[in-house]
């Protein structure tokens, strides 16, 4: 299916508005993953403020920061379409989205040398109207296997564990299990983490601050 850029943008906007409208009683995802920078900054500061307040009361807070590697470029189209169908998006709407993704091609040009066109099989078109929505549909179940308090902003997430002084080491094991769950999801859906950007923040007063070491497997499972 071939459409002009103008028609494609109009259809994309219509689909995007549909998922934000009152016609959908329960949208497949709460789309505030993509918010204005000022709102996003406030939410990040709110999380850190909560952690600092909790630590001031004598508790320990461990925050796991995760980051997907080239997230918007690596979401596999076959798996993305599988998830779209799981949201009961079918018929002409599904076929249009499938065609819209499959018609994307790219090639490399070096000086006067031009290489052949190759079909793009992963990623959501950045700068498009529909791209952010499709990405949200793809990562919407990322947090399903995580038991701790979480925040997800596009391709970044935070897993937060509040630890009372009288709690046992099993609390740390729970947070480690959440990390393992996130890693399993990333392997299953071919959305690997940028390990260098995944960090842990220990929040607490000096005498109580956690020194627990968490682990995260890389693409090779190491």
Topology as a string of helices (H) and strands (E): HHEHHHEEEEHEEHE
Weakly predicted, low-confidence segments: 27-41
Helix proportion range: 40-55%
Quick one: how many beta strands? 8
Shape verdict: elongated
Order of strands side by side in the largest beta sheet? 6-7-1-8
SS strand fraction: 15-25%
Q: Largest sheet, if any?
A: 4 strands, antiparallel
| DSSP summary: helix tally | 7
Mean pLDDT: 77
Structural class: alpha+beta
Distance between the termini: 43 Å
Question: What's the Cα radius of gyration?
Answer: 21 Å
Quick recap:
By secondary structure, this protein is of the alpha+beta class.
Question: What features would you describe in this structure?
Answer:
The protein is 41% helix and 15% strand. It contains 7 helices and 8 strands; from the N terminus they run ααβαααββββαββαβ. Strand 6 (149-153) and strand 7 (156-163) form a beta hairpin. Helix 4 packs antiparallel against helix 5 and helix 4 (77-86) crosses helix 6 (131-139). The longest helix is centred in the first third of the chain and has 20 residues, at 37-56. The radius of gyration is 21 Å and the shape is elongated.
């Amino acid at each position: 299916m071939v459409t002009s850029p103008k028609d494609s943008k109009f259809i994309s906007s219509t689909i995007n508005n549909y998922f934000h409208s009152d016609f959908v009683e329960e949208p497949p995802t709460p789309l505030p993953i993509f918010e204005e920078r000022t709102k996003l900054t406030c939410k990040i500061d709110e999380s850190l403020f909560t952690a600092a307040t909790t630590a001031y009361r004598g508790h320990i807070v461990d925050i796991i920061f995760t980051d997907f590697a080239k997230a918007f470029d690596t979401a596999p189209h076959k798996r993305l379409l599988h998830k779209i169908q799981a949201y009961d998006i079918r018929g002409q709407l599904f076929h249009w989205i499938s065609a819209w993704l499959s018609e994307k091609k790219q090639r490399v040009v070096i000086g006067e040398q031009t290489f052949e066109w190759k079909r793009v099989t992963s990623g959501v078109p950045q700068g498009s109207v529909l791209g952010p929505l499709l990405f949200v549909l793809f990562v919407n179940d990322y947090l399903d296997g995580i038991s701790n308090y979480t925040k997800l902003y596009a391709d970044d997430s935070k897993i937060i564990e509040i630890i009372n002084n009288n709690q046992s080491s099993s609390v740390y094991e729970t947070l480690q299990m959440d990390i393992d769950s996130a890693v399993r999801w990333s392997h299953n859906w071919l959305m690997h983490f940028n390990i260098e950007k995944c960090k842990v923040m220990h929040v607490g007063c000096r005498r109580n601050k956690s020194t627990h070491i968490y682990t995260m497997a890389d693409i090779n499972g190491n």
